[in-house]
Amino acid sequence: MQSIVSIKGLSKVYDSGHQALSTVDLEIHEGEILALLGPNGAGKTTLISIICGIVSASTGAVSVAGHDIITDYRVTRDLIGLVPQELTLGAFDTVWNTVNFSRGLFGKSPNPAYLEQLLKDLSLWDKRDSELRELSGGMRRRVLIAKALSHEPRILFLDEPTAGVDVELRQDMWKMVRRLNESGVTIILTTHYIEEAEEIADRVGIISQGQLLLVEGKLDLMRKLGKKQLLIELRQSIEEIPAALADYNLEISADGNHLIYTYDTQGDRTGITTLLQTLHETGLSLKDLKSSQSSLEEIFVSLVSTK
Amino acid sequence: MINYQAIRVIYKYEMLRAWHTLLQTIASPVISTSLYFVVFGAAIGSRIEQIEGVPYAVFIVPGLVMLSLLTQSISNASFGIFFPKFTGTIYEVMSAPISFFEILVGYVGAAASKSMILGIIILITANLFVDLNIAHPFIMLLFLVLTCVSFALFGFIIGLWATNFEKLQLIPMLVITPLVFLGGSFYSVSMLPPAWQTVTLFNPVLYLISGFRWSFFEVADVSVGVSLAMICLFLLACLLLVWWMFKTGYRLKQ
Q1: What ipTM does this complex have?
Q2: pTM to 2 decimals?
């Protein structure tokens, strides 16, 4: 797949000494929906801000559609729309004026018909003459999206689009994201909710402490996240796995008192019933059973510790 | 290639902002100028002799216009750029395909236009109080334009530099206003004791007021050529400073 944003060795150290990003490499494919997943303060916003030209990088380079974001900023910024995390809007402008302002700022000649359709798509048309300070939080979020789309960008960045957003707006937003994506717009969104990434993204990148730990197709990642473990406590310790159980994905704990069975919740069958039956047949008696699923935090921890 | 659309929308936005705050931008300077006329021109001026052949109430007109031009150019431009910084909406300008030059033309151009309109309104107001004759209208306009642009640029620099509202007011209150008052707005420098005349020559605002006044009455404290040279120098200094600020992303980019 062709890459539309190419990030190479990107690092950012703020004046305060805080290292927000350390050598991030990332290829964003044209036409995909990429979710950047990570806890607060992981560096997601910094990464987006550098690509959009709001923050300058300490080292590294970013190119958009083959153009460097610094030397060719007019070309790259023209392609990009940004919906910021904070609800930063003027107070006294009307909705209509502010989207026209945004469009002009990006060098596009006025196009009332396009903006009318845009506002209608975002259920803002009725509010076009309202002043921004009169709008609710959800409406303000919609206005920010309208502003970002006012110049018909090919790449859309949504920074934590669902923070403080109700269910209805969230669903509207995902609908809009899909529709835009179908029309060929590449979408990059950040979130700290795994469910959101699961719902909307094609690929998921995980960022923690300024490092991009992995970028994978959503399905692969879900498989990893979908792994569950069954901890089987035995009455007597064993040295090795009985031959009858060799076909199962089993491990023995260090003390020999536990068997650990790893299985996939997304598979058709978990194999637990037959495992227990086989265990019974081998004559091993069980003391207790416990199952656990690796959480996003655990994946973060394990990813960070293996680095 | 120049992003004319961006310049247009920034300019329009800033001009509209003045419309929303019409009382603050137009009415209050007009009212305060009228008060100056009543107090200095009519009440005190009637007891003061002519200064270099010009009646006192007329003599102070150029100084009063300058007082408003300077403070309004600075406050318009500094607010124009400080406010988006303060609310965070500056992100949009920074992520747009605009050069610093275009941002500057939009913001400073609007601020300068506003104070130019204001200057003309004040002149018209003054004409209601006194009989005003302008000896060199084109030089008067040149001074008007150069002053508005230079000080709007200076205000823009203050707006970029300020990190809070206090800093925003600091320089206009503590530096500009005293300099204007001590720069001969209400008197001729020749009325001062010789030692203070020398001190006053270090006040850049003196050159502005003197040159501007010359265009009205052909009466000046320093020669009009020196005045023009000084204002061009100030304009150049501001341009260099703002160029450096943009180059380094000062207070804008982290």
Answers
A1: 0.86
A2: 0.82
